[in-house]
Every structure is written in structure tokens, then in C-alpha cells.
Specification:
- The structure is a single chain.
- With 716 residues, the chain is mostly beta strands.
- The protein is 6% helix and 43% strand.
- The chain folds into five domains: 23-181, Jelly Rolls (Sandwich); 184-327, Immunoglobulin-like, CATH 2.60.40.680; 334-428, Immunoglobulin-like (Sandwich), CATH 2.60.40.10; 442-634, no CATH class; 642-715, Immunoglobulin-like (Sandwich), CATH 2.60.40.
- The strands form nine sheets. An eight-stranded mixed sheet has the order 33-34-32-36-37-30-31-35, with helices on one face.
- It is elongated and about 120 Å long.
Length: 716
């Protein structure tokens, strides 16, 4: 029994001395502080544009930069690779913070063994439960990751509920117990490249060391060289990884561009094996603050263990050369918005958009430059660090700018990003051809120009340039049939004489809120079924061959058509004549071909676009239907009567949207039944001084036997 116990104790001691000593090791660390925002560090394998670094809302960890995901769309950030070859166990952690509009379950963190398939779930909802508060998130590494030579970490942000929603991560850390026999040996800088923002006048460069053990390091020495025309090595100090300075003796001889450094332990304990990211710190300063890349080189390295024979420690690996890129102080830039909507702008007027711009974390003044025709820029004076100002963008359209407009332009600035791209949109009203000022050029504009050739007094002088298109493009200051000819041919051909596109407003394919006018296909013909009188019709038809169009029976009516051989479209214009209208009813349009249709057409005709204009200038969409017989026409209704705005502030005009019918009466009453306004003709706007006090008023319209009353509320 006693012999067995002795053998057991001896065996246990042998196992203890023969087994490699394990040690706590940092396998991966990223604090996002090695770059100038919004750049991402070199440990970032991939990222979407919704991820960038930011120095705002610093974490309780390393502070300074953090990685932030912003907006309502999703985006992923992939870090790595992490070498876990020597890991016996491990913990994955990071600091996190979110806004209240970015929910706690909207960050999914996964790991991958190949950098492609992220199938190892680390966190299903990796954000703090409370908003606007930093919290450290931590989890044990799954067993399938331990021992892997390369592991990638994916932070998949699902997005918040608004463009300003954001969540932040900082101090991503993977650490644990390592098998020393599997750890690489190395001495040198933390990386082979480093970016230095010269807003910091000096820089500390950590020298780290790692080895498998079991020997303890007693001392080391090496040489350092640098370019003294770019940087100065001012001193070398003990790093945080050495523990108490009382147990170490550091000596250095620093000359013009070279130096010798030695480090010796005054204790037999020395430096235990495995990883020490900072044993020494080399302090450098810039000789001249210019953008340049220089190198610092380590050589002649020698390290000894605390053995009686001073055995040398073999440390063949490590970053012995550091490429240091110096960058003078930079500004930062944050814009309140990079999307500019100028809204609706009438030619001759202008619209301005003001955008806030700031230099929140810059170390130099922010100066903006750029040009953006047709947008005029009002740029502020240079913005000092932590300062802000307003940018004014002004859009002043010309006749050639009619319809929906959009574009991009860039502003330059002395920041890490260098430029910012802006997108702008506008709807230009009253451009060339746009006589009715709705942003598009169509048959409704032709009707107004046609009436103006007979009665020039109908065209205000300020609006004449809209109609005056002959000679194209400058006009001659008059309106006559030559302008009508240019306008008709432009609509039929879908472009101006110089091949530029016609003004088009959003949704112009189904214009207005008017009555639907049916284009009816019967067995042998096309008919326009209109329940109201029409001044003009515009159609785009597609068929195997051009259809024979019916000439209008109405005296003085105009028919124009054009077949576009490139698109196969047949474009048709019908105008009733100056001041005239086609009566409500069924208007013949074209005869249809008989017999089977050649491929790819299965129907005789297709309507691609259509619009009609009534005698009051209102536009109505045309819809296509197939019927055996022409349908009965509905009686006109008054339900389309609208008032806007409603409620309306006191002293503001009231705009009216009247149905396309003849009115026998138009009257305005107060709550006591007193008639305040009466007019037998149609009006589109009530004067701003009609309503003298706040309250509810009533507007009554009558057509034949039908009448309708709407209320309008006037507020103070």
C-alpha cells in the first residue's frame, strides 16, 4: 500500500513537470483607435457602407474610436482572422451601445471557419437591454472554434427604425488559456504598418513579445534605426506588460538615426512565457508635419532566459520593420443631410435648402469647395474644430430645366474621406412648353397655346416664354402657328427639335384626379367614351401596323399623328380648335385591322399612354377597355370638388379643385347663412381677405339639378 502511494505521487509529479504550462493569452484585440474616422482598421475583412468608425459616444473601455452602424438598412462588419490554434478555452467580448430606435435584438454576431459561411452563432441579440448605455457583452467561445487556425467574426446589424438609428461596438476581444507549445514566437512592433494623425504631437510604439516557454526571459537587447529627417526617437520606456518597474533596468543610447536598447530583469522571476503586447514603448515625434511614409527597423535582437548558462531564447518571428505613415492634422465633417429636395420650383423663381455642417472631431479647420451647376452653393468660412455652420444650396431653373430634375455633385474637404457626394431632386414648373405649369408638356399645354394664338390677352406676359418655342430654342417673343407647329411635332415625336427630352412630371402617366376617360375597343374600331366635353386628346398606341385614324367630324378640329418606326408607337393628337370642345359622347378614333394578329401581338392594339383635357384645363387619364358594345356614359358628378388647404390659416388664400362641369352657381356662406361671395364663373382660388375671422365657412356649387356644399375651417 505504501509503495503504491509512492508510485502514484511520483507519477503525478512527473506529469506536472512534463506538461506544458498554460497561460492567459490575448488572441485578438480591436479598439478601432488605429485609424482616423470614418476609416475602418486593417482587421476589417469586409463591411457595408453603413459601418464606419466614430469618436463620438466614447466607450468605458479604450474610449476614442468605436465602430458604428447607422440607419434603417442592414449591414455587416467582418473582423479577423483570429488564430485560435493554441486556444484551450476562450472568451469573446465587446462593449456595445444602442439608440432607442435600434432594438436590442437587432445585432446578430456569428463566427466562421472559412470567412464565407458564418454558421456559428455567438449572440442572437448582441446589444444592451437599455438604450444609450454602454454594456460589455461576453460569451465563452464554442468548442468548434478552439484549435482553429483562422476564425472570422461577423457583426450583422439589422438596422433601426429611422435614418438616425445607430448602434456601436468597441474593444472587441478574444482571450483565453493557451497551450504554450502551440504559440508562435515573435518580437517586434504590433503591426508592420501604422497611420499617425499628427494632431497628436508624439506617438508611442509598443514592442511586444511572445514565446512558448517554459523558460522565463531574463533580458533582451536590440538595435533601432530610423530616418531622422522625418521622425525623432526621443526615448524608450517600460511597457505595461512588464509589471512593476522596480524589477527592471532599461538602458538606451539614442543617436541621430540609430540607437541601442537593452532590458534586464533585476529579479530571478523575469518575464513569464507566452504573450506580452507591450514590454517596451518607443516614443517618437515628427520632425516636419508633412504627409510621408517612413520606416523604423529593429535588428540585432538577442534574448536570454534565466538559466545558469544564459540560454538564448529563439524568437525568429515578429514585425521587425514598421512602415509609419505621417498625416498632418485633418478636419472631420458631418452633414445634416446629403439628399436635397428642392420641391416644386417655378421657372423664374428659386428654391433653397439649408444643410447643417460641423467639424465635431477634427484637428484642423474644415474648408469646403466645389461647384454644382445648376445648383448654386453658398459655402461658409472655414469651420474650426468642434464648430458648425450652415450650407445653403439654391436651385434657380431655366426654361430648359422643366419637369422632374435630379443629379449629383461633390464637395471637397480636407478630411480622411476627401469628398462627399450629394443627391438632389426638383420638379420644375413652367419650363419650355409647360404652359399650364404642372411640370409636364402635353395636350393640355397645346390647348392653352392654341387659345393664345387667337386671343393673345389670355397669355400673361410672364408666361409667354413657356409658349414661345419658335424659333427653337430661344423664341422670338411672339406666339403664333409656328410655335404650335414646333409644339405639336415635339409631342408627336417625343422630343424637342434638338433631341432633348420633353418635360415630364412624376406620375404624369396617370395625370390629375380627374374622371377616367375610356378608350373602348369594339370588334372593328376604337372609340373614346367621354362623359364630359373635351378640348383635346393625346394617345400613344402600339399595333402591328399604323391604324387608319378617323378624321374628326367637328369643324375646325385638328388631327395630327406620327408613327415612330424605332418604337412602333403611333402617337395621336386631337384638338377641338380655339375655344371649342368635342361634345360629351363617343368619339371615333380609328378602325381596327381584321383577321389574326402577327406575333408577338395577340390583340389588334395596345394603349401605352393617354391623357385628355377638358374645357376648363383639367387633365384626365385615359384607360383602355374591350367591350362588345359602346357603354352608356355616366352622368357627371360633383363629388370631385376639393378644397385645400383645409383647415387654412387666417389671411391665406383657399385653393379649389372643381369638377369638370358647367356651374350655375358658386357661393360662399358663413355659419349664419350670410352669403359672402357669389360668382357664376369657375374660380380656382378664393382671395386671402375673404374670411375676416376664424371659424367654419361653407362653399356651395350647383350644376343643373345637382348641388354640393363643402365646409372649410379657418384657423387663427
Amino acid at each position: 500500500m505504501e509503495g503504491s502511494m509512492k508510485r502514484f505521487i511520483l507519477g503525478a509529479l512527473l506529469c506536472l513537470f512534463l506538461a506544458p504550462a498554460s497561460a492567459q493569452t490575448t488572441f485578438f484585440s480591436e479598439a478601432f483607435d488605429s485609424v482616423v474616422e470614418p476609416a475602418l482598421p486593417t482587421s476589417t475583412v469586409s463591411s457595408s457602407g453603413t459601418w464606419q468608425t466614430s469618436a463620438s459616444s466614447a466607450s468605458p473601455g479604450s474610449g476614442a474610436n468605436n465602430a458604428v452602424h447607422t440607419g434603417a438598412s442592414s449591414g455587416s462588419l467582418v473582423l479577423g482572422p483570429v488564430d485560435l490554434t493554441a486556444a484551450l478555452d476562450g472568451t469573446f467580448s465587446y462593449w456595445a451601445r444602442r439608440t432607442s430606435s435600434y432594438s436590442a435584438d437587432s445585432l446578430i454576431v456569428r463566427a466562421s471557419l472559412d470567412g464565407v459561411l458564418f454558421d456559428v452563432l455567438l449572440f442572437g441579440g448582441g446589444l444592451p437591454a437599455a438604450a444609450s448605455t454602454w454594456e460589455q457583452i461576453s460569451v465563452a467561445l464554442p468548442a468548434e472554434l478552439l484549435g482553429a487556425g483562422a476564425v472570422w467574426l461577423q457583426f450583422d446589424g439589422r438596422g433601426g427604425t429611422s435614418s438616425g438609428s445607430n448602434m456601436r461596438i468597441d474593444d472587441v476581444l478574444v482571450e483565453g488559456t493557451a497551450n504554450p507549445l502551440l504559440i508562435d514566437t515573435a518580437f517586434g512592433f504590433g503591426a508592420n504598418t501604422l497611420f499617425w494623425d499628427l494632431s497628436a504631437p508624439s506617438l508611442g510604439l509598443d514592442l511586444g513579445i511572445e514565446w512558448a516557454g517554459p523558460d522565463t526571459l531574463q533580458g533582451l537587447q536590440f538595435s533601432l534605426t530610423w530616418d531622422d529627417s522625418v521622425v525623432s526617437v526621443d526615448s524608450v520606456s517600460l511597457g505595461a506588460g512588464l509589471g512593476s518597474p522596480a524589477f527592471w533596468m532599461l538602458s538606451s543610447s539614442l543617436l541621430t538615426n540609430t540607437g541601442n536598447i537593452s532590458l534586464l530583469s533585476l529579479s530571478n522571476n523575469g518575464l513569464p512565457p507566452v504573450t506580452h503586447p507591450s514590454v517596451l514603448v518607443v516614443h517618437v515625434s515628427a520632425v516636419a508635419p508633412v504627409a510621408v511614409t517612413t520606416q523604423l527597423v529593429l535588428s540585432g535582437f538577442l534574448a536570454t532566459s534565466n538559466t545558469p548558462t544564459a540560454d538564448e531564447l529563439g524568437l525568429p518571428n515578429g514585425h521587425r520593420t514598421l512602415s509609419l505613415t505621417l498625416q498632418p492634422s485633418l478636419a472631420s465633417v458631418v452633414f445634416g443631410s446629403t439628399a436635397l429636395d428642392f420641391g416644386s420650383v417655378v421657372v423664374g423663381d428659386s428654391s433653397a435648402v439649408v444643410v447643417a455642417v460641423s467639424n465635431p472631431t477634427g484637428t484642423a479647420d474644415l474648408t469646403l469647395s466645389g461647384s454644382a451647376s445648376p445648383i448654386a452653393l453658398s459655402l461658409p468660412d472655414p469651420i474650426a474644430p468642434a464648430g458648425s455652420a450652415d450650407l445653403t444650396f439654391r436651385f434657380r431653373p431655366t426654361l430648359a430645366d422643366g419637369g422632374s430634375r435630379s443629379g449629383t455633385f461633390s464637395l471637397k474637404h480636407k478630411t480622411a474621406a476627401a469628398t462627399t457626394t450629394f443627391e438632389w431632386t426638383a420638379l420644375v414648373l413652367g419650363g419650355r412648353g409647360d404652359a399650364d405649369g404642372d411640370g409636364s408638356f402635353d395636350v393640355a399645354d397645346l390647348v392653352l397655346s392654341l387659345d393664345g394664338t387667337v386671343d393673345p390677352g389670355l397669355i400673361p406676359a410672364a408666361e409667354l416664354p413657356r409658349h414661345d418655342v419658335y424659333p427653337f430654342p430661344a423664341g422670338d417673343g411672339a406666339l403664333d402657328i409656328r410655335d404650335l407647329t414646333v409644339a405639336i411635332q415635339a409631342i408627336l415625336r417625343g422630343q424637342w427639335p434638338d433631341a432633348t427630352p420633353l418635360p415630364v412630371a412624376p406620375g404624369s402617366g396617370a395625370p390629375g384626379k380627374g374622371i377616367e376617360i375610356a378608350l373602348v375597343q369594339t370588334a372593328d374600331s376604337l372609340w373614346l367614351s367621354a362623359p364630359i366635353p373635351l378640348r383635346g386628346v393625346q394617345l400613344v398606341l402600339v399595333s402591328a401596323d399604323p391604324l387608319p385614324v378617323a378624321r374628326p367630324a367637328k369643324r375646325g378640329a385638328l388631327l395630327s399623328e406620327y408613327h415612330d418606326p424605332a418604337s412602333g408607337e403611333q402617337r395621336i393628337l386631337l384638338l377641338a380648335g380655339p375655344g371649342a370642345a368635342f361634345e360629351a359622347g363617343h368619339l371615333p378614333i380609328a378602325a381596327l385591322p381584321q383577321g389574326p394578329m402577327p406575333p408577338p401581338l395577340s390583340d389588334p392594339v395596345r394603349l401605352d399612354a393617354g391623357v385628355a383635357v377638358d374645357r376648363f384645363g383639367g387633365k384626365h387619364p385615359i384607360v383602355f377597355r374591350r367591350e362588345d358594345l359602346l357603354p352608356e356614359l355616366p352622368e357627371p358628378e360633383l363629388d370631385g370638388f376639393g378644397i385645400y388647404p383645409n383647415p387654412v390659416p387666417l389671411g391665406s388664400p383657399v385653393h379649389l379643385d372643381l369638377p369638370p362641369v358647367d356651374l350655375a352657381a358658386f357661393e360662399v356662406f358663413d355659419t349664419l347663412g350670410r352669403r359672402l361671395f357669389s360668382q357664376p364663373e369657375r374660380v380656382r382660388q378664393l382671395p386671402a381677405d375673404l374670411f375676416r375671422t376664424p371659424g367654419t365657412y361653407f362653399i356651395r356649387i350647383q350644376s343643373g339639378a345637382l348641388s354640393l356644399t363643402r365646409s372649410v375651417v379657418v384657423t387663427r
